[in-house]
Amino acid sequence: MRASDVTLKPVTWLHYPYVPLGKITALAGQMGQAKSLWTCWLASKVTNNGGRVIMLNAEDDAEDTIVPRLKAAGAVLDRVWIEPEIRLDPERHDATCDQLGDVQLVTIDPIAAFLPGNVNSWKAQDVRRELEPMRQLAAERKLAVVLVQHLNRRSDAGGDPLARIADSQGIPQLARSVLVWGPDPADPEGDRGALKALTKAKGNLSRDTASATFSIVERVVDTNITAPALVRGEDRDIAADDVVSDAETRSALDEAVEWLRDVLADGPLDAKDVHRQARENGISERTLKRAKRPAGVVSESSRADTGISGWRWSLSPINTVGPLGTVGPLGTQGKGAKDANEANNSKAASNGRVELATAEQEALIARLETA
C-alpha cells in the first residue's frame, strides 16, 4: 500500500482524552481500589447516550454486584449485555454486536482471567497474539475495548507506572491508551479513602495531560439494597506514578512538597542550595524532583555574559508571555521558539489550559541544576 493511497481520518473518542474508539485501552489499578466502578460509570455514560455495552467480568456476580452498581451509576440496563461465559471469543462477541446493534464499548475485567491457560501471560508475544482478534474487532466495529488489569508490587519500577502493570508488558504495548486508577493523592484517608483519580500513563493519541477525579458514594438501588457509585470531580494535574506509589512514598512526597513551599516562601533560592538543604533534611533527590511540580516551583536561569551560571527556584510565576515565556525554562528563546510560543498562546486561549514543559525539558533542567 502506498501512503498516497491512504484516506486520512481523525481519531474519534468514546471518552476524551482517555478512551479512543476503534482501539484498545488498558485500565490498571490495585485490588480493592474500585476499578470496576469506573467501568460501570463509563457504561452509564455510553448507554445514556444511546450506545450499547458488552461487559465481561470474571470476578463479580451480576445479581449482587454488577447490576446493582450499574443501576447506582444510572446506566440504562437493557442496553448492557453481561456475557455469561468467562472466555475471549471474538467471533461470539462480533455476533453479539450484530444482535445488540450500536455497541460502543466492551469491557473485560480482569483481562488475565480471560486468557487461555496455554497462554503465558508474562510473554508479550503470546499476549499480543491472543489479543490481536480483539484489536481487530475494535477497529472494524469502531468500538472501544477496555482491558482491566491489576498492578504488581514491584519495588524496582523506578517511578515508571507502566512497569507496575501486572503480567506481560504486551498489553500496555498493544493499547493506545493506558490509564492508571487509584487513590487520589490529595485524599487524607489515603488508600482507604473515597477519593479516586484516573490518570494517563500512556496516551499515543492525545497530548491532553488532565487527570480526572472521582468520589465514591452509596446509593439505594432497591429495597434494602445499596451499591457504590462514582461521582465525577474536577480535573487536576496528577501524575500516574503518584497514584501507583505506596502510602509511605506518598507521605514522603507530601512532606517534600510542604518543605519546598516553606523554604521558598521568602523568595527565590539557588537550586544547589535547595538541593543541599533537602539532603540535610533527609529528602532524597528523586523525591525532591517529584515534589517540584505539585509545590508550584519554577526554575529560572541565572545568566552571565558567558551563558548560564546557575539556576534559581521560585514559587512565583517567572514566565509572563505564553506557556514557556519569553524567557522560558531553557533560557531566552530564539525566533522559532517565540513563534511556537505564540502558537501555543493561541491554543491555550482557546482551550483554557496552559501546557507545561515537556518531560524532556524538565529532565534537562534537572541535570543542569545539579551540574
Briefly characterize the structure.
By secondary structure, this protein is an alpha/beta fold. The chain has helices spanning 35-48, 62-73, 90-100, 124-141, 170-174, 240-244, 247-263, 271-280, 285-295, 335-351, 359-369; strands at 13-15, 19-20, 24-29, 52-57, 80-82, 103-109, 144-150, 177-183, 195-203, 212-222, 225-232, 269-270, 298-304, 307-314, 327-328, 331-332. It folds into two domains: 3-244, 3-Layer(aba) Sandwich (Rossmann fold); 247-369, Arc Repressor Mutant, subunit A, CATH 1.10.10.
Draw up the topology in text.
Blueprint: E1 13-15, E2 19-20, E3 24-29, H1 35-48, E4 52-57, H2 62-73, E5 80-82, H3 90-100, E6 103-109, H4 124-141, E7 144-150, H5 170-174, E8 177-183, E9 195-203, E10 212-222, E11 225-232, H6 240-244, H7 247-263, E12 269-270, H8 271-280, H9 285-295, E13 298-304, E14 307-314, E15 327-328, E16 331-332, H10 335-351, H11 359-369
Parallel strand pairs: 3-7, 3-8, 4-5, 4-6, 6-7
Antiparallel strand pairs: 1-2, 8-9, 9-10, 10-11, 12-14, 13-14, 15-16
Helix pairs in contact: 1-2, 7-9
Q: Distance N terminus to C terminus?
A: 50 Å
Profile the largest sheet: 9 strands, mixed
Assigned CATH architecture of the largest domain: 3-Layer(aba) Sandwich
> Which parts are unreliable, with pLDDT below 50 for 5 consecutive residues or more?
318-359
Tally of alpha and pi helices: 11
Structural class: alpha/beta
User: What is the averaged pLDDT score?
Assistant: 81
Whole-number radius of gyration? 23 Å
SS elements, strand count = 16
Strand content: 15-25%
Question: What series of H and E elements makes up the topology?
Answer: EEEHEHEHEHEHEEEEHHEHHEEEEHH
